[in-house]
Amino acid sequence: MSSASLNISVVEKRMLKQAEAASYTGLAVKHFKAACPVQPIELRPGTVLYDKRDLDVWIDGMKTGAEMASQDAILGRL
Fold first, then answer.
1. Is the CB of residue 21 less than 8 Å from the CB of residue 13?
2. What is the pLDDT of residue 72?
3. pTM exceeding the 0.85 threshold for the entire prediction
4. Which residues lie across from 64 on neighbouring strands?
5. Per residue in 54-75, pLDDT tens?
């Protein structure tokens, strides 16, 4: 009996449509549109996409802000 191997390569998308970007951040589209400060890029006329790296920077910044707020709250209680 012979064996076969399967070679699959997956290329992860960097640029996301609005619905994909909302899903990537875990937000509904209406909440994403209201909350996200990331500016989309128009790669060609009529094609507006969000850069996943910019979304990551925004999310990481929110995490840093939350960490600082919780540290300030702890220090305030001391």
1. no
2. 58
3. no
4. none
5. 999 999 988 876 655 555 555 5
Give the burial string for 23-38 (b: 16+ CB within 10 Å, else e): ebbeeeeeebeeebeb
What are the sequence ranges of the domains in the chain?
Answer: 15-77
Separation between Cα atoms, residue 20 and residue 38, nearest integer Å? 14
19 contacts 34 by C-beta, under 8 angstroms: no
Alpha carbons 17 and 19: distance in angstroms, whole number: 6
CA contacts within 13 A on the Cβ side of 61: 9
Per-residue pLDDT, averaged over 45-62, amounts to 94
